[in-house]
Write a structure and sequence with these properties.
There is one protein chain. By secondary structure, this protein is mainly alpha-helical. Helix content is 84%, strand content 0%.
């Protein structure tokens, strides 16, 4: 049990004293980058889905 308590004490010290937390501006910039990347990936997946649907419709002769 002492090992577990020591682990939590050391973890707390590391998180409060040794970790460099990003600033609010850095967090906002990172969030924007993630949002833009997510939109780009979603558009790529949408294009792949639409094109594969069109190819399969041509292949099977359905006009849906």
């Amino acid at each position: 049990m002492a090992n577990v308590l020591e682990f939590f004490k050391e973890s707390y010290q590391e998180m409060t004293q040794k970790v460099t937390w990003p600033t609010w501006s850095e967090l906002q910039n990172s969030a924007v980058v993630v949002l833009i990347a997510s939109i780009i990936i979603a558009l790529i997946v949408l294009a792949m889905d639409q094109s594969s649907t069109a190819v399969l419709n041509l292949f099977y002769g359905t006009g849906a």
